[in-house]
Specification:
Radius of gyration: 25 Å
Structural class: alpha/beta
Strand order of the largest sheet: 5-4-6-7-3-8-9-10-11
CATH class of the largest domain: Alpha Beta
Distance between the termini: 62 Å
Shape: globular
Number of strands: 20
Number of domains: 2
Length: about 425
C-alpha cells in the first residue's frame, strides 16, 4: 500500500527490540504520596533567561528539567531570539549548549557575532539526536537548545528526519534526557503552511511549554505567545522588534502600534485587546470599494475571517448597509492577531466608516456583535477603558454590563448608519 492505513505514515516498518516489548514485565516503582498542602508552584527552580519579555511569557524563567517548544514561520526570528537567550544565560555564568542540525557551527558563530553575543556559548553542528544527548551529558549544560526537532534524527529509524516517526522518537529521547538530568531543553519547531506545528500532534502534549513566535515581516514586529505552560499562566504575549542587532523588547506595545495612527481617515478604529494580563491597543483598518466582478473579494488579515463575513450579514440586515457589490478588506496593523470576539464592534465600525466615507476620529470600540444586531459586553471592560484613556483616545464605544444595544443605533449615533 505504501503507507499505514491507520496513521497514514509513509515511512518504513521499524523493528521493535525484544527489550522494549518486555518492558511491561518490570517491577513497578513504589508510589509516593502527595500532600496537597505542601505542594506549591514556588517549589520549581527557575533560571532567568536574561530577556525580560521572554521570562514574563515563561512565567518567570526556565524551569529546571522542563521542555519548551518554540514554533514559528521561517525567518521570523526563532534562532535569533534563542541565540540571544543563550548569550544572556552564558553571561550569567550558566553553561548553554546550542545544537544546530540546520546550520554549521560557523554560520551560528557569524550570527552570534552580528548579534554581539560575546559569551562562551557551546556550539554543536549535529543531526543525530543520540550524539547531541551524549555531548550534553559530557558538558552538563544548564540549557540545551535543539534547532530544530524536525531536522534531527535517530539512526535506528530508516525514515528521513522530519517524518512522524523520527520527530516522535527524537522528541521522546530529548524529553527523557531533560527529566533525568534536570537540564532545560528548548526545541525549535517548524510550522506547516496552515500555521500549525509540523509533526505529530502528540509533540505538543509531550512538552511542558508551547510558544509561538508570530510577526509581520513588513513591519518588523514579532509577537511571542504562550499556548501551553505547565508552570505558569497561558495566553501571555510579548512584543519584540526585529532590528539589525537582533530582537529588541518593546516595552509599550500600544504606543508602538499606534505610532502612525491617523484618526481622521475613514475606516480606522482602535481596539483595546487583552492578552493575558496585558492590554494592547491595536488599529483595525477596513477598506470598502465598489467592484464590477460577480463575486466581490473579501480579504482579512489579523482577525477571524468567518466573523467578518458574519458582521457583513449583520450590517446588511440590521444596519441597512448592503455591501454585496463591494470588495471588503480588513487588516490589523502591525501583524497582530486578534482572536477574541470583543473585536466585533471595532471591525463593524471600521467597515461602516469606510463604506460611507466618514472618519470616526479618535475612537476606540469593543464588544461582541450578535446575529440579532445586539452588542454584548465582553470581559475586562475596566482594563480596556484605562488603556484607551492612557493613550488619549477621546471617544469610547462599548456595551455596558447587562445592557443590550442595537448595532443599528450605535452606527446611527456615530453618523455612519442609515
Amino acid at each position: 500500500m505504501g503507507f499505514c492505513p491507520q496513521c497514514s505514515d509513509g515511512g518504513p516498518l521499524t523493528e521493535v527490540p525484544e527489550v522494549t516489548r518486555s518492558r511491561s514485565k518490570r517491577r513497578g516503582a513504589a508510589p509516593v504520596p502527595i500532600i496537597l498542602g505542601e505542594q506549591s508552584g514556588s517549589d520549581f527552580v527557575r533560571t532567568s533567561t536574561g530577556v525580560g519579555e521572554l521570562d514574563r511569557v515563561l512565567g518567570g524563567g526556565l524551569v529546571d528539567g522542563s521542555v519548551v517548544l518554540l514554533g514559528g514561520e521561517p525567518g521570523v526570528g526563532k534562532s535569533t531570539l534563542l541565540l540571544q537567550m543563550a548569550g544572556s544565560l552564558a553571561a550569567g555564568d550558566h553553561r548553554v549548549l546550542v545544537a544546530s542540525a540546520e546550520e554549521s557551527a560557523q554560520q551560528v558563530g557569524l550570527r552570534a557575532q552580528r548579534l554581539g553575543v560575546e559569551s562562551d556559548v557551546l556550539l554543536l553542528a549535529e543531526d543525530d539526536v543520540d550524539s547531541v544527548i551524549a555531548t550534553a551529558r559530557e558538558t552538563r549544560p544548564k540549557v540545551l537548545v535543539m534547532d530544530s526537532v524536525q531536522t534531527v534524527g535517530v539512526a535506528e529509524i530508516a525514515s528521513a528526519p522530519g517524518s512522524i516517526t523520527q520527530v516522535r522518537e527524537a522528541s521522546s529521547r530529548l524529553i527523557r534526557f531533560a527529566k533525568t538530568s534536570g537540564t532545560s531543553v528548548v526545541l525549535v519547531g517548524h510550522v506547516t503552511k496552515d500555521g500549525g506545528l509540523a509533526g505529530p500532534k502528540t509533540l505538543e502534549h509531550m512538552v511542558d511549554v508551547v510558544l509561538s513566535l508570530e510577526g509581520d515581516p513588513d513591519r518588523g514586529f514579532r509577537a511571542l505567545r504562550s499556548f501551553k505552560n505547565r508552570f505558569g499562566a497561558t495566553h501571555l504575549v510579548a512584543l519584540f522588534e526585529m532590528l539589525t542587532e537582533g530582537m529588541v523588547e518593546v516595552a509599550d506595545p500600544s504606543e508602538a502600534f499606534l505610532a502612525e495612527w491617523q484618526s481622521n481617515v475613514p475606516g480606522t478604529v482602535v481596539f483595546p485587546a487583552v492578552e493575558g494580563r496585558r492590554s494592547v491597543m491595536v488599529e483595525i483598518q477596513a477598506l470598502v470599494t465598489k467592484t464590477t466582478t460577480p463575486q466581490p473579494r473579501r480579504s482579512v488579515r489579523g482577525v477571524d475571517s468567518p466573523r467578518v463575513h458574519q458582521l457583513l450579514a449583520v450590517l446588511d440586515r440590521h444596519a441597512g448597509l448592503y455591501l454585496g457589490d463591494h470588495e471588503v478588506y480588513v487588516n490589523v496593523v502591525g501583524g497582530w492577531k486578534v482572536t477574541e470576539p470583543g473585536a466585533d464592534l471595532a471591525v463593524a465600525l471600521a467597515i461602516a466608516s469606510s463604506a460611507v466615507d466618514v472618519p470616526l476620529g479618535s475612537t476606540a470600540a469593543w464588544g461582541e456583535v450578535g446575529l440579532a444586531g445586539e452588542v454584548r459586553p465582553v470581559p475586562f471592560d475596566r482594563r480596556r477603558r484605562e488603556e484607551a484613556e492612557r493613550l488619549g483616545v477621546k471617544a469610547l464605544v462599548a456595551s455596558e454590563s447587562g445592557l443590550r444595544v442595537s448595532g443599528a443605533l450605535i452606527l446611527a449615533g456615530l453618523g455612519v448608519g442609515t
